[in-house]
Amino acid sequence: MRVLVVSDSHGDGKSLHSVVDQAQADHVIHCGDFCTRRDQLPKCSLTVVRGNCDWEDVPEEDWWDVNEHRFFVTHGHRYQVRSSLLPVQYRSEEIEATIACFGHTHFPVCEQVGNVLLINPGSLVDPRGFPRPSYAVVEMGAERKLSVTFYTPEGETIPERGGVFRP
Fold first, then answer.
1. pTM
2. For 4-63, what is each residue's pLDDT tens digit?
3. Which long-range contacts does 22-26 make (Cβ < 8 Å, 24+ apart)?
4. Where are the beta strands (DSSP E) in 45-151?
5. DSSP string of 66-88, one letter each residue
6. Other CB atoms within 10 Å distance of the CB of residue 55
7. What is the dotted CATH code of the domain comprising 2-165?
8. Environment class of residue 159 by beta-carbon count within 10 Å: exposed (0-12), middle (13-18) or buried (19+)?
9. Which sequence spans correspond to the domains of the chain?
10. Alpha-carbon gap, residue 4 to 93, rounded angstroms
């Protein structure tokens, strides 16, 4: 199973659609601040949440179960992710999620804390504190193994982010 994780596309539908086509994922997670009408989002298997800049009627947070994993999806602004990742970690543990996907900071993060893998794909169009726009792809392997790879919108690998995890 291949899952594309994007966030903070801020109205750039062209880049979003391009990355969705390029990644050829089985499922897409958008962590909010898509800043378009919902009907302009890609037509695919999609979990989407509302960011602090969105106006569409989509959930503030959601979760998605696949294989032996539960993905918790939020934008992050309601969990103060600029200050600490603990609130997202605690909420993930509360709902028994093994993977937490969030955005808001425009900075890519991938780290395992306890039994929760925290993933912020960065911003698809406007990075902050990181030199390139980015997104993440999660590939699920045998024995709950997860491989996370970060890419630029042009499809170049960002080797300093990602890794192999077993939450």
1. 0.96
2. 999 999 999 999 999 999 999 999 999 999 999 999 999 999 999 999 999 999 999 999
3. 22/155, 23/135, 23/137, 23/151, 25/137, 26/1, 26/2
4. 46-48, 61-66, 69-74, 99-101, 109-113, 116-120, 135-140, 146-151
5. ETTEEEEEE-SGGGTTTT-SHHH
6. 10
7. 3.60.21.10
8. exposed
9. 2-165
10. 22
